[in-house]
Design goal:
Radius of gyration: 18 Å
Number of strands: 11
Distance between the termini: 9 Å
Structural class: alpha/beta
Helix content: 40-55%
Number of helices: 13
């Protein structure tokens, strides 16, 4: 048994997974010790300025300091010794001219250099995290794994490993800042966002044979929140959402509801995390357009994603 700590720093959130991993013939077993998420909006304004804002950096570092205390508590403090730790940063940090400010802060907090990974590596880690435990459902292969983030969305096609992948710069934060400016957004703003997303999805086809996929697997907070709303959950329940199957009609209905709701109405939805209220409409629209453009009748929703892939990589 190996205890590891994985930190995923995206455009909208920073997440921690402390887990015990046991290797095995069937791929092994990952058992959560701690799983945390904080909305820090690291990528706020990056699409416009090309830089990480000082306030966004400080929000991120504050969350990370709390994570470092948890790693210490579950490592040396629990008699396990230092935990092997990996910090991965994705879209917002890739795009920022001052990303060295971020790197220095992470080294100060965790004592490890964060890896600003490529979109292709992000896709591979997401695929590993999402598909390790799908075998028991026996969904048709190959899978198209879609990870809708704040700044980018990763697409990866494969059966047991990633065969083709592409990262594109459409994400819930980026699309909100670029298009969905009113409360609620106007029909023209929604139309412009959809056109932007559709153009990016056409580019994905150039590298990923999406028509070969038999099962769509959706990851990350936008997808899980849409699933929670579709399931009419009174509050967010990962055990109910994980590996649920949501139809294209349900996704479309939830997307329409979110895009026509005011901020106050979205905030009142039971499963809604406060940090997703402003960007969930764009995240839902991305998922809706993916299912429409690629012809999927349903999406299998996974609570396990790149964070779990980072943990597995430490084994």
């Amino acid at each position: 048994m190996t205890r590891v700590a994985a930190i995923d720093c995206g455009t909208n959130s920073v997440r921690l997974l402390i887990a015990d991993i046991e290797p095995g013939a069937g791929g092994g077993r990952l058992t959560d010790v701690e799983r945390r998420m904080e909305i820090v909006r690291l990528g706020e304004g990056v699409d416009e300025t090309g830089r990480l804002a000082p306030a966004a950096l400080e929000r991120t570092f504050t969350a990370m300091r709390g994570y470092a205390e948890l790693i210490e508590r579950h490592g040396s403090g629990a008699g396990h010794g230092p935990i092997k730790t990996r910090v991965v940063a994705t879209s917002a940090t890739r795009d920022a001219a001052n990303r060295n400010d971020f790197v220095r802060g992470v080294v100060d907090i965790f004592g490890v250099v964060p890896e600003v990974i490529s979109g292709d590596e992000e896709a591979e880690l997401s695929f590993t995290g999402a598909t390790r435990e799908l075998a028991e459902l026996r969904p048709a292969r190959p899978y198209l794994v879609v990870d809708i983030g704040g700044g980018s969305t990763e697409f990866v096609l494969g059966s047991s490993s990633a065969d083709a992948s592409r990262s594109i710069d459409i994400g819930c934060v980026r699309m909100t800042e670029r298009h969905l400016k009113d409360d609620p957004p106007s029909p023209q703003q929604i139309s412009n966002a959809a056109a932007d997303i559709d153009a990016a999805l056409a580019a994905v086809r150039e590298r990923v044979p999406v028509d070969e996929a038999r099962t769509l697997v959706g990851l990350a907070g936008s997808v899980t929140t849409v699933a929670g709303i579709a399931l009419d959950l009174p509050e967010y329940d990962p055990s109910r959402i994980h590996l649920s199957r949501i139809t294209a009609t349900q996704v479309h209905d939830v997307t329409r509801r979110l895009l026509h709701a005011t901020r106050a109405e979205r905030a009142g939805i039971g499963v809604m995390h406060p940090g997703r209220v402003d960007v969930i409409g764009a995240g839902a629209l991305i998922l809706d357009r993916i299912m429409r453009e690629y012809g999927f009748g349903a999406v299998v929703v996974s609570e396990h994603d790149i964070l779990d892939g980072i943990a597995w990589s430490l084994l």
